[in-house]
Inverse folding.
DNA sequence: GGCTATGATTCGCG
DNA sequence: CGCGAATCATAGCC
């Protein structure tokens, strides 16, 4: 019945140890997915093997006991047959009773084995149980990308792969990370300000000089439209660089012509840097070009359409307590 | 032990 | 299908 099927599927019953491990591996692979983490799987397999061994030894024991008991009863009946007549029917009936009893015991064994397997599966296959924080290096790389693409923190499939490779995590983990990051950043920009500054400064070191000229040009050329500088509306137009959109690839592989494409993101970087240098932190007044507050206001990707519960418990994101280090 | 940070999952939406 | 939002469950810190 069903128990049998399940045990067979899990590689517990069925072929013995020789092919058993293969069956177990197949089961693990089938349920777990790809050959992602061999460590987990080998662990899982080991545990499964253990269960299988217990199951088989118990099963054997029961069978043996059943046989012994049957022969014992038979002997008893034979002895009794000397004193009273015993029909073959009666013997058959006795044997039947014994077998039924033992098979019900076997049933219980199977059931408990199934339970054990289920627990094992939930323990090992539920990824949430084995959550591990990414390495410091990995989060650093991810953060670098995130903050240097703050205007559009949606890495392309290629970029995700690249990041995944760099961080030695899977692409879906990268997606998860960015999903979490975006939402958590948006939820409380103030909390991430420090981090943003940190990474912005870090990337700025490498990127700023490459783009600074371009940005300055951009700004000096259009002093009348500060909003264009604020670049808040990343989600939309971005007109220019949308067409060239090549900001992905490696995040910082710019070949001459790409500079334009990267300007947008670099503006973010610079904004943070400027912020850090304490230039505009008092901009709360309203015309602060680069305050994240402003950024928030003009509907970027983090356009918080639901200000309801946010009401930043901390000070507003605008009040960046820049450590006035300069 | 409670708290926060964080990775993963789930669900609804377009 | 990718994303946002809510949620779960563990890690790590005090």
């Amino acid at each position: 019945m069903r128990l049998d099927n399940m045990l067979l599927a899990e590689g517990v019953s069925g072929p013995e140890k020789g092919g058993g491990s293969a069956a177990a591996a197949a089961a693990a692979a089938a349920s777990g997915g790809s050959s992602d983490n061999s460590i987990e799987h080998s662990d899982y397999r080991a545990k499964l093997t253990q269960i299988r061994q217990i199951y088989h030894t118990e099963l054997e024991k029961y069978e043996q006991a059943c046989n012994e008991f049957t022969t014992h009863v038979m002997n008893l009946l034979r002895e009794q047959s000397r004193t009273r007549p015993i029909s073959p029917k009666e013997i058959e009936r006795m044997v039947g009773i014994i077998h039924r009893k033992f098979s019900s015991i076997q049933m219980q064994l199977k059931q408990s084995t199934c339970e054990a397997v289920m627990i094992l599966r939930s323990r090992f296959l539920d990824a949430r149980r084995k959550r591990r924080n990414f390495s410091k290096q990995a989060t650093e790389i991810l953060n670098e990308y995130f903050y240097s693409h703050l205007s559009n923190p949606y890495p392309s499939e290629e970029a995700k792969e690249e990041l995944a490779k760099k961080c030695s995590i899977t692409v879906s983990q990268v997606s998860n990370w960015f999903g979490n990051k975006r939402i958590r950043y948006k939820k409380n920009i103030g909390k991430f300000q420090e981090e943003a500054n940190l990474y912005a400064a870090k990337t700025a070191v490498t990127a700023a000089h490459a783009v600074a000229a371009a940005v300055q040009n951009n700004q000096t050329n259009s002093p009348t439209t500060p909003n264009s500088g604020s670049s808040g509306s990343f989600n939309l137009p971005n007109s220019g660089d949308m067409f060239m959109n090549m900001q992905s690839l490696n995040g910082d592989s710019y070949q001459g012509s790409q500079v334009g494409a990267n300007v947008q993101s670099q503006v973010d970087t610079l904004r943070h840097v400027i912020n850090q240098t304490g230039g505009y932190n008092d901009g709360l007044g309203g015309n602060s070009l680069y305050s994240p507050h402003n950024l928030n206001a003009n509907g970027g990707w983090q356009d918080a359409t639901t200000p309801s519960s946010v009401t930043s418990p901390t000070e507003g994101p605008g009040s960046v307590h820049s450590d006035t280090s300069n």
About this structure: Residues 126, 128-133, 154, 175, 179, 182-183, 186-187, 306 of chain A lie near DNA strand C (CB under 10 Å from a C1').
